What we know:
Blueprint: H1 3-12, H2 18-24, H3 33-61, H4 65-101, H5 106-126, H6 132-138, H7 141-148, H8 154-164, H9 169-175, H10 177-181, H11 185-205, H12 213-232
Helix pairs in contact: 2-3, 3-4, 3-12, 4-12, 5-11, 7-8
Amino acid sequence: MSKNEKYNTQLIQLFNRPCKLIKEGGKFGINSVGYFIFVLGLFSISNITLFLYSLSRLASTGFEARKVFFILLIFVVGFGFTLYSAYRMYQYLRINVVKVIYGNLSSIFQSISELIINKTESLFKDKFNLTNSQLKKALDFGRMINIRYHKMPKFLRTAIILLLNKIPIVDMLLELKEEIFKGNKLDASVKLYNRMDKHISNSIFRNNNTTWIWWLFPLNMGVLFVFIKLMIE
Length: 233
């Protein structure tokens, strides 16, 4: 195994290990690890602070069943926002992991394109006028990858399936329907691969950002402030 292959193997092994990814991702050039800790700390500390503030207001204004209900609501909602922010940041990290190793997966994705075209050809032979939903239902990428590449490490299959599920492959296949039906499978697989590669690079990787924090955090704070105000009044 070459040094580059060993590096990619070690990196992709972090894919399904959240704690290890957060802890060791920086060693592999995943610079967003520190950002993950910052975002999680931002939501955690803010929600804990507001929860403690609501407890102090409860103590100073007297105990009532209605107020206790809002205290519990503040805790649950704050915990929910924190958990959701952690989930979104973890998905952000996972895509960054795939982005680092994607350049070495081109041959695999070319093979997958051929596999998808072959499967689609057999489907079109049975029924040419397949709708988007029918084709999507018939093409189970998770099952397809796990069967064809069963000898491939599970964590690598998981990474590939994650990418495939983010690509509008069904729409691409419907655009190539005439070509597939005529038996031009080689050309169709090349075109499919090029479109998949373009979508992965220009949409998935480029759109993998954390701009959602700019609306999620204010929403989180706004909701809790409303609950605290309702509790006090």
